[in-house]
Amino acid sequence: MRVLFLADLDLSLPGGVETHVRELARQLGARGHTIDVFGRPRTLEGCTMVDRIEVSRYDIVHYQGGPWPARLEPGPRHLRTLHFCVAAKMEVYVRMGRLRTLANLANWHAVAEERRGCRRSGRVIAVSEGLRRDFARWHGLDPVRSRVIPNGVSFAPPRQGHEALRARYGIANHSPVLLTIGRDDFVKGYGLLASAWARAGATRRGAVWVTAGGAAPHRAPGRVITGPVPHHEVIDWIHASDLGALPSYYEGCGVALLEMLAAGLPALAHDVGIAPEVIRDPAVGRILPPTVAAWADAIPSALVRRPAPRAPALGPEFGWPAIAARVDEVYREVVGSEAP
C-alpha cells in the first residue's frame, strides 16, 4: 500500500508528534508499505521525504499535523490522527484565570482548523480516549468514525550507563534525580513544579531536577537543563533517573510519560492525556491534583534512589510494532470500504 503522511512539521525535533511520525513511518515501512512524508526537513534518516502532494499516487493520505494544504480536497481514503485539542487546552487556561489565551489569534485559528478537520470526510485516530472525548465535546466528532490508538514506545535500552551520563552533567551518583522532558512552555507546568520543588526542599537532600530538553543548557544548584538533545539521550536520562514528572496542565497523549513507564520509571502526573489510562497502580506512579501543595507533599517520599535496571510498566501493546499493526488495520478498513 502506498501512503502519504501529511506532516508539515520539523521532524528533526525530538517532540512527541515528531517522534510519532518518524517511528510510525519506519514501522509501517517494515510491514511492507511505501510511506512518503510531506514535511520538513528535506531529508531525514529512515524516512522518504517528498516536497509535492500527488494524491493520485497514494492509496491512503494520512494527516498527522501542521497546516492542512490549501488546495487539497479531503477524500474517502483520507485519514487524520488527532494529537492535541487546542479548544480543550484553552478551556483549562481560562479556568485557571489565564485569560490572555483568549487574545491569542493563533489559538482561534487552530480551533477553527480543528473544527474544519472534524467536518472533513475520512476516518480519525485519537491518541488517547480523553482526546477523543475532547473532540466529541468541542467539535462534534462522531465516535463511530474514530479509533483510539496511542503513541508508541521503543522500549529501547540506554546507550550510556547512568553513572557516565550523570558524570557528564556533574551529578553525583548518589543524588536522587527527578526528570521532566520537553520544552519550557506554560502548558508543561514547569512553573508549578518549580514552586513545589522549592517548597519540598528537595535540593537540601542533594536531589537534582533534570529537564531533558529546553531551549538552552542551564545549571543551578539542584537544577540541570540539558538543552536540545537527541532522542536516544532522552532515553538515557529516563534510565538514569529515579522519578519522572508530567506536571502538564493539558496533554493529548503524553509521549514522555509513556517512555518513562516503558523504562520502569515511576512517575507523577496530572489527570491529563493518557495518564489516567496507564497510571493505575501505586508502583507505577500517582495522579496528583494540579496544585503546588499536592506536588510538594508527593515529591519527598517519591524521590528516592532506585536500583536499575527496572521492569517496564507498560505491555508490548504499546510497542511501535503493535501500534503500526493497529494503524495498518485501519488502513485496510478504509481501503476495503471503498472496494466495489
Structure description:
By secondary structure, the chain is an alpha/beta fold. The protein has 2 domains: 2-152 and 319-337, Glycogen Phosphorylase B (Rossmann fold, 3-Layer(aba) Sandwich); 162-314, Rossmann fold (3-Layer(aba) Sandwich). Helix content is 35%, strand content 19%. A 7-stranded parallel β-sheet has the order 3-2-1-4-5-6-7. A 7-stranded mixed β-sheet has the order 10-11-9-8-12-13-14, sandwiched between helices. Helix 1 (16-30) crosses helix 11, helix 5 packs across helix 7 (231-240) and helix 6 packs across helix 10. The protein starts with a strand and ends with a helix. The model has no long low-confidence stretch (mean pLDDT 92).
* Largest sheet strand order: 3-2-1-4-5-6-7
Let me know the number of strands.
14
Report the C-alpha radius of gyration, rounded. Answer: 20 Å
Shape: globular
H/E topology pattern: EHEEEEHHEHEHEHEEEHEHEHEHH
CATH-level-2 architecture of the largest domain:
3-Layer(aba) Sandwich
Structural class based on helices, strands and sheet pairing: alpha/beta
Q: How much helicity do the residues have? A: 25-40%
Q: How is the biggest beta sheet arranged? A: 7 strands, parallel
CATH class of the largest domain: Alpha Beta
Distance between the termini: 18 Å
Mean pLDDT: 92
How many separate helices? 11
- CATH H level, superfamily name of the largest domain: Glycogen Phosphorylase B
Strand content: 15-25%
Question: Within the CATH hierarchy, at the fold level, what is the topology of the largest domain?
Answer: Rossmann fold
